[in-house]
Specification:
Blueprint (H helix, E strand, L loop, with lengths): L8 H17 L25 H6 L27 H4 L2
Length: 89
């Protein structure tokens, strides 16, 4: 008896890509680097990170960074676009 439930090459590709995405999605963790076991970690040696210091640092996860800065370019003339009637502009 021949089984008709065999996966095609595209089916295998989907499975491999899904497993790879799940495996790579769990890589890493948020936080500072771990010290080697032989390193002498002095408590309090790391500077404390205050909210104002964190807000001044550029980051992908910091939406307020640069919000106080002036715009980089001036607004130009409005040019008509094909979808303007649909968008209500």
């Amino acid at each position: 008896m021949i089984s008709k439930n065999r996966l095609t090459p595209s089916g295998w590709a989907i499975i491999v890509l899904s497993v790879s995405a799940l495996a790579l999605g769990g890589c890493g963790r948020k936080g500072p680097l771990d010290l080697p076991p032989t390193a002498n970690a002095a408590p309090g040696a790391a500077p404390s990170d205050t909210e104002s210091e964190r807000a001044a640092q550029p980051s992908v996860f910091n939406p307020t960074y640069g919000s106080e800065a002036a715009p980089a370019a001036t607004r130009g003339n409005k040019r008509p676009f094909v979808l303007d009637p649909l968008l209500g502009n």
